[in-house]
Amino acid sequence: MAIASGVAAAISAAVALAGAAAGTASAVQQARNQQRQARYQAGLAERNARIAEQNAALADEEARAARREGVEDAARKRQETARIIGAQRAEAGASGARADAGGALDRVLDTAEKGELDALSLQQRGADAAHNQRLRAWGLRNQAQSAGLEARYLRERSNTDYLGLGSTLLNGASRTGRNFFTLGARGPRLR
Question: What are phi and psi of 97, to 5 degrees?
């Protein structure tokens, strides 16, 4: 009977050892898969950060273009107003009226005022569009920074996944060693 219980204990120990080896192999494979997944996700986050930064640079360029366009539109409006005032003065002069007095002057001043208000409105529209683009660029840069932080976290996580694997291996080795140590009279202990 002692031989049968010894054989049973040896078989139990071999099964425990095989189970520990299978668990270890599974843990190693799982850690590798998690590391690959974390690296892949880190690569995607880095790509998203680059794209967001490029979009922010484009938004900055669009802001400069919008501001420039507003200034140019205002300058064109002022030139148009100057042409209209010139035509009004020429018309007043051709009719024999004084261009710098009375109703002709009122008409010129009214045209100048409306023209300047239109020019300022165009310039403000350009400034507003530029401001909106700068806000968009700011939001995109925040996205880029967030994606960069995520990428760094995922890269670090991919490197620390092996700590969990090491812990699993040590626990399996400890359990196997305990089983062999207690093989004596009681047989293997599988916990």
Answer: -85, 160
pTM beyond 0.85, yes or no: no
Q: How crowded is the C-beta side of 159, counted as CA atoms within 13 Å?
A: 6
**Among 45, 53, 49, 48, CA closest to 150:** 45
Q: Of 34, 49, 48, 31, whose CA–CA distance to 154 is shortest?
A: 34
143-148, long-range: CB < 8 A, 24+ apart: 143/48, 143/49, 143/52, 144/48, 144/49, 144/50, 144/52, 144/53, 144/56, 145/49, 147/45, 147/46, 147/48, 147/49, 147/52, 148/45, 148/46, 148/49
Query: If you count DSSP H runs as helices and E runs as strands, how many of each does the chain have, helices first?
Result: 2, 0
pLDDT, tens only, 139-168: 989 988 988 888 888 888 777 656 666 666
Condensed to tens digits (0 to 9), the pLDDT of residues 8-44 reads 666 766 676 677 677 777 777 777 787 888 888 888 8
Q: Cα separation of 27 and 21, whole Å?
A: 10
From the CA atom positions of the chain, what is the Rg in Å?
Answer: 40
